[in-house]
Amino acid sequence: MDHRKQQQQQQRSDPRLKKCPFCLKETKYLDYKDYPTMKPFMDYFGNIMKRYYSGLCLKHQKMLKNAIERARFMGMVSYRK
Amino acid sequence: MTSLVPTSEDTVIYEFCILYPANLSQKEEQTLLKGIEEVFAEAEGKQIAKDAWGRRGLAYPIKKQTEGNFIVLYYEMDPTKMKEVDRQLRILPNLLRHLMVKPPKGYELVKYSEAFEQWQKDKVTAVETKRKDEESKLQRKVVEKAKRDAKRTEVKKAEVKKKEIPSTLEEADLSKKLDELISDDTLGL
Fold this sequence. Notes:
The structure holds two protein chains of two kinds.
Chain A: H1 2-10, H2 21-25, H3 35-38, H4 51-54, H5 58-73
Chain B: E1 12-21, H1 26-42, E2 46-62, E3 65-77, H2 82-91, E4 97-101, H3 112-183
Antiparallel strand pairs in B: 1-3, 1-4, 2-3
């Protein structure tokens, strides 16, 4: 019984229960000028995180992609570090 | 924070982000800004807001420039004139990049020149708080270690005392026995 309990604790939480952070805030638009909000979804090299890792819903992932690409074009964010 | 709503149905509010190099002379800069204004005047745009970010470092060099000035403009204008504005902005000299975006409905205007400063301040304070936390943690650790060391030394001292007492007794016994042996006449020493 104890062993089973331990196993349950080690397992990750159900990915279906994980909610998109922008959905929780009810974000309707991601601004390309707002670097602090985009930063956590980029890695060291300036790549956009995959949806699997970012945990965003499709709608917000697309918004994020749009915002980051605009920021890259304007030279606020690097394409590749 | 003011939400953008166009005054009439025929016009749309657009957001323009303009990037020009930071090392321009004042004359060049003024002519450039005038040129931009003229372009919008030709398109009969009505300025709603302006947000000059000032000098910023670029993430990658554009036309060998590593620093640039950003301006964010909000204009209300006829959508059919956007193409002409885009063409004119492309032609303008000394202009590195420009971006035209139609903000969504209910977009709230944020002055990012101020927001950025606030963000940097927050970052500094966050770093400071982190450092303070680490320092307090270290201090606690040091105090705990000192306590543990003190305890250990006390225990060691006690052990040493315990050990020393029997050894002296043994010595006394030994000397006694030796005396006995020496005084014993049966052994022919």
